[in-house]
């Protein structure tokens, strides 16, 4: 027995020496992590500020009394999300839907990679000889259990989608692609376009707030699934303005490259939220390929975060540039809005302007006033300032479909451009004057220390 105990002690000693920690408490070591400034974003250093009306409440809404609050540091998009950026999302969803439909039909036909035709687009696990042990285990035990029976199966993205009808490889491929376009009887002028109703993004998330407040329940009870049709509503240019000619904006604004750097509009709060989830998924897929630490999620800013960022460090100012006027000392307008009682073109813009227009505020954020109003994560309650927390405040009631929009737009008067002005729209509504920008939490408490550790 003594020999056995001595043997165990020697093994433990050798194990400790092998770890190189000399038996000390040094902490578990994970992957090396360095903060990374997301592309197109700027760091907004957290702090306290006076949130609420900086001027007289001329509209007598009384929904923004002053209150000192504190927000943590976060990254924010320097501009509103543009048409070209949102088109990247749309095209990713489009390609994923096409690949999924091709893979499902190939699976039903028993086609596998290596066969000419639709088999080239079969699921990556369609060839059992090329599976890893883990993929084989997942295939045997979990695949086929979801809503469609194809959840979890990996798409083959190594082969390009064929869009030229003259190069379709077989009739099965043609059949799938035919389902992606509008019916032939709905086409005109020889143009048969993608049926945008087929562009649906599906994602899941853990409702951590609900889970934290429930005394019991399993984790799966708080995992929510959302399905969102993500193509912008281009008809908003017609519907928002009765007895007005805006067909060119309806026809060209979203898809034409001439408007690529303009802010996307016609997106609902639900679509903006779906975009954030996709951006997180897209970035973390890149991180996974390179065996890097995952980034935390992109999201819509809370109302307090948005106002803190819009103020640009100016305490008590009316506008992102200070105020109280919407012109500079040379008589030039400082934002895109509705000046001079309706002379829309007086600020050099009739509708929207490029997202990187006018001078940014002191946080290098463009158009925090004017151009397009912006969705935030918060629900609108005129009394929310009275009961919200003073640290990272955000009131988002899932039962309240009224979501806050901030910043004013190209069709608003100067009052709505004030950093403290609040407005709302319903979460499933889309407008020609509402866009959004995203934020990402800064990982850590002292950004100066963390940023020094970042690789050059």
From TrEMBL:
This is Gliding motility lipoprotein GldK. Keywords: Lipoprotein. Gene3D superfamilies: paralog of FGE (formylglycine-generating enzyme) (3.90.1580.10). It comes from the Bacteria. The lineage of its organism: Bacteria, Pseudomonadati, Bacteroidota, Flavobacteriia, Flavobacteriales. Residues 41-439 form the Sulfatase-modifying factor enzyme-like domain. One of its GO terms (molecular function) is formylglycine-generating oxidase activity. The gene is gldK. It holds the Pfam family FGE-sulfatase.
